[in-house]
Amino acid sequence: xxxxxxxxxxxxxxxxxxxxxxxxxxxxxxxxxxxxxxxxxxxxxxxxxxxxxxxxxxxxxxxxxxxxxxxxxxxxxxxxxxxxxxxxxxxxxxxxxxxxxxxxxxxxxxxxxxxxxxxxxxxxxxxxxxxxxxxxxxxxxxxxxxxxxxxxxxxxxxxxxxxxxxxxxxxxxxxxxxxxxxxxxxxxxxxxxxxxxxxxxxxxxxxxxxxxxxxxxxxxxxxxxxxxxxxxxxxxxxxxxxxxxxxxxxxxxxxxxxxxxxxxxxxxxxxxxxxxxxxxxxxxxxxxxxxxxxxxxxxxxxxxxxxxxxxxxxxxxxxxxxxxxxxxxxxxxxxxxxxxxxxxxxxxxxxxxxxxxxxxxxxxxxxxxxxxxxxxxxxxxxxxxxxxxxxxxxxxxxxxxxxxxxxxxxxxxxxxxxxxxxxxxxxxxxxxxxxxxxxxxxxxxxxxxxxxxxxxxxxxxxxxxxxxxxxxxxxxxxxxxxxxxxxxxxxxxxxxxxxxxxxxxxxxxxxxxxxxxxxxxxxxxxxxxxxxxxxxxxxxxxxxxxxxxxxxxxxxxxxxxxxxxxxxxxxxxxxxxxxxxxxxxxxxxxxxxxxxxxxxxxxxxxxxxxxxxxxxxxxxxxxxxxxxxxxxxxxxxxxxxxxxxxxxxxxxxxxxxxxxxxxxxxxxxxxxxxxxxxxxxxxxxxxxxxxxxxxxxxxxxxxxxxxxxxxxxxxxxxxxxxxxxxxxxxxxxxxxxxxxxxxxxxxxxxxxxxxxxxxxxxxxxxxxxxxxxxxxxxxxxxxxxxxxxxxxxxxxxxxxxxxxxxxxxxxxxxxxxxxxxxxxxxxxxxxxxxxxxxxxxxxxxxxxxxxxxxxxxxxxxxxxxxxxxxxxxxxxxxxxxxxxxxxxxxxxxxxxxxxxxxxxxxxxxxxxxxxxxxxxxxxxxxxxxxxxxxxxxxxxxxxxxxxxxxxxxxxxxxxxxxxxxxxxxxxxxxxxxxxxxxxxxxxxxxxxxxxxxxxxxxxxxxxxxxxxxxxxxxxxxxxxxxxx
Length: 1028
Prior knowledge:
Belongs to the TonB-dependent receptor family. By secondary structure, the protein is mainly beta.
């Protein structure tokens, strides 16, 4: 297994900062002149809003209403004049102080194109549905290790959950609400026209787990040219069943056939600091029943609680037999967690000839986690090439090879090895550093190497033993490749074929060492997984224009997808020789294998008719045949229309552009392999005889059909104030029926459930995007955007239509008194549990012992959805000469979260609320037994720990400086830019106690559950980009 011994070279950061300061100071020594001028059309009319950029810098200007501009440039600079609908011109400054320009019209520039389904570039005006496109730069400034998390707050209607699972963890991206009641609700990711696998390799549930990452987390953000979000069913219908949750298209960077050679270097260094949101009590120490421990046994018995006496500074026995002052020991949170860092370096060489372009890139990411002895290392190698074989035949090829190694990904929830549990619960009288034990074997007893526990229970683990002695390592190699050929029979007829592969191998080793409190003899598990997916398609397309203003665009095609996965695992228990970690050294062994394969065959078509580039009508259809449903097929139609009314009629003077759009579509989805037929498995031999059994715990159903999602979408795009204000508004309604669910049946049948087609989910919502070019002056610009998405979901029906308020449980919290459920008639993903029993005046009712009672008559009640219905973000970007400033504020409202962390802090006596009654008791509960009062709440009353999870965060900030080309030309550099970046800097609004409102422990459908999650991090860093 690859070792994590790489570190940032000593002094590297100092060198980077030194170079930055040198360049900055040098800038002040370079002479610059003020350039003025006017930009006109060939008819002599002034052109307002023309962009003038000093080539290779961020310095520029925009013409005013009279077409005039003013900026500062050096004699050896080149000015670039660009304006929509006109040809771009470049003019050398030389010694000129006045430069007047006449721009020539270019009709081809009037159209804005966007990548849509199947990688087809289409005129944006022709689209009858909502599409959002982001530049790759959005993901390389205040960057995330998993690029999908970089979507947070940037696209209306896209809900991104920042899973608290550390580097290498998964993302959760939901577009327009959850479609399926129990199955995957995340979008399909497509890179350069080829779908990729985004399956998660581990997740936490009721009893915890580890998030081992997903597919999109392997991608290098420096390779991304654009990311396009296809939100609605209409946009994604050509992808069929796999696109029922939307599609995210990624177009990677490629070389140009006209640019010559370009060498680009990106270097990014970010420091990660764990965010401490704990505000726990610091007045009472370890012990029981309000008493200070006086013996070692008493110290160990109360070592996992803070129900002892009031801190007074007197010497008191601790878990290790040493007497220390009974006083506040300091902040254990800051003592334990490391300052992490991520160091990313990438290099790209691109270029080409008249007939071919290419780009090769290599990147290295080295991460050190905030949890000691954890980290991530990733290497990406990517090659893109495109060109002409002859005048009719063109090709595109791309390939990526990725190596990713993860060391000790954080244990989540109630999983053994979750270091957060002990660190956050440790009594204020105990210093976490005293748990380090043997300096050569941290967390272990020096005399025998066993786990050095601070308490009697084996589940109050030593965090240093978990971090340094327990081990979980995984390595993943991945090959992504695609190849496409396109042949133009005529200028209106073409044939295109392509194929792509996504193949990855993953190995994992988990070691529970000798001396572990839970397993004194130790154990180890090893597993290997191999996955391969091949997608191929061929399409015949045609496009023609007629003199009467009518154009048509059509294509037909066929596609096939095959997917297979093989896995094997070995389990060894009890090491014969302690501390020798090899599978052959284990006494009890077992193992298993798994395999599945699935396929989808498809045909599809598209037909589009337009009139005078103002009226558009588009219809698509696709039929999928599923191997998982015995070859059953389903047809997915869509129809959309758009009308650019500003081209067809006179608009009010304040409106420059207005487009109305309307769309309807259906898509569906299949199920997992082998749910239609009974399958069997082989168990461990018994006296040499193989043991067989039924592999499934559910009744197979050979009559299953695909689920079906139907969506209607209406929207408009408008531009105002000479195109300086833009408004994009969408309203949609999506209904999913015939979901594939496990219906619970009597276990006397030998099964837990039966697979059936039932259920209905409704999602209704609005999306809004407002863009403003607030200030466009010679040396200063200010652009802003505001996006908002509101999704109202409803579980219309579940399994039995005759049962009102029927429930389907998705998950249960470790506290076993809170759940996430889908409940008929309520929004998706309700957080549920027991509430207090109250009298008519709203007062909490207590029993004869004085303990609070729960409302058993009301039973398990819903508190709200763990999915926020309202999401969005506010972006601002400023530029002044060569300087730039940008920041993103994102927000979520309307969701709730159940905090198992706060529940357990009640149990341990660490929550501030538990200070009440320590001296005088509460009601009939005496002070010495006050822990029973709070444990009764912790055990039975979920209501106490359900919080409004609304939040507003300063998510990103970047401050940049483009180094003048007048200086760079002297050192043979084309462009260079440095910037300071930050991420997750401020929590501007939250009502949740002690945890981050985004603390959720898995990427699945059961959102709104927390249990001692890995802390969120605040990140600061520096970027350096150089082009030669």
